[in-house]
Amino acid sequence: MAREPVVGILAIQGDFEAHASALSRLGARSVRVRRDRDLDAVDAIVLPGGETTTIAKGLERVGLYDALETFARSGRPVLGTCAGAVLLAREVENHPVRSLGLIDAVAVRNAYGSQVDSFSVTADGELENLRCIFIRAPQLRRPGPDLEVLARVDGWPVLVRQKNVVAATFHPELTDDTRVHSLLLDSIPAR
Ligand code: GLN
User: Fold this and answer.
1) Structural domain span for residue 76
2) Pocket of ligand 1 contains residue 55 by CB under 6 Å
3) Which residues lie across from 160 on neighbouring strands?
4) What's the pTM?
5) Ligand 1: which residue has its CA nearest to atom 5?
6) Which pLDDT score, from 0 to 100, does residue 113 have?
7) What distance in Å separates the CA atoms of residue 135 and residue 83, rounded to the nearest whole number?
8) Tens-digit pLDDT profile for residues 133-180
9) Which residues form the catalytic set?
10) Ligand 1 closest atom vs CA 110
11) Residue 179 domain-assigned?
12) Is residue 176 part of a domain?
């Protein structure tokens, strides 16, 4: 029998436990990724939410930007949620940080305004009744032709996929719905 998939969760800042728990419900084991050699042992990676600027500084400090780009370009699956989605964008329009350029969209940070800290809403798209929790969420704008939009809220893409890279502007780890994490696990190449 194939071994259980091992998923790395970037552990510079952000919620390790909630992602690990969602992944464990799907039969995957999670490990913390803090430096480039941690990536050698994982089949896929999650970039969690948090404060984008803090995570970006951490990535720079430990030299993980290039390693993450190489990891993704090798075809291994990547899921970025909220701040993680910002880091995957081709460009960050406001409060710019260095991003990985793995999804063809421009991220706008805190796009729902400083008065709107968090809200929950059901998205439109092929995943029925997908409840999305947004916390100081970004928007993904000006999507390119290679970006597949899997869910939208108010017309804006909130769940997108580009080849092996999935980005959610919300927090799928905060609900019992594991379908977004399944997208990650289902694209791990057969071992
Ligand atoms: N607004 C945050 C940022 O851009 C992201 C919020 C989150 O990840 N929940 O840094």
Assistant:
1) 6-186
2) no
3) 149, 167
4) 0.96
5) 83
6) 79
7) 10
8) 999 999 999 999 999 999 999 999 999 999 999 999 999 999 999 999
9) 82, 171, 173
10) 1
11) yes
12) yes
Asked if 19 contacts 175 with a C-beta cutoff of 8 angstroms, the reply is: no
Does 51 contact ligand 1 (Cβ within 6 A)?
A: yes
Q: How confident is the model at residue 2 (pLDDT cuts 50, 70, 90)?
A: low
- CATH number of 145's domain: 3.40.50.880
Domain count, the chain: 1
Within a domain: 32:
yes
Ligand 1 mean position to 188 CA, how many Å? Answer: 27
Residue at 1 is within a domain: no
Pocket test for ligand 1, best of 46, 51, 134 (most atoms within 8 A of CB): 51
Best of 95, 110, 120, 173 for a ligand 1 pocket test (most atoms within 8 Å of beta carbon): 110
Contact 33, 55 (CB under 8 A): no
Contacts of 52 (CB under 8 A, 6+ apart): 83, 86, 87, 92, 95, 97, 109, 138
The per-residue pLDDT for range 33-75, each reduced to its tens digit, is 999 999 999 999 999 999 999 999 999 999 999 999 999 999 9
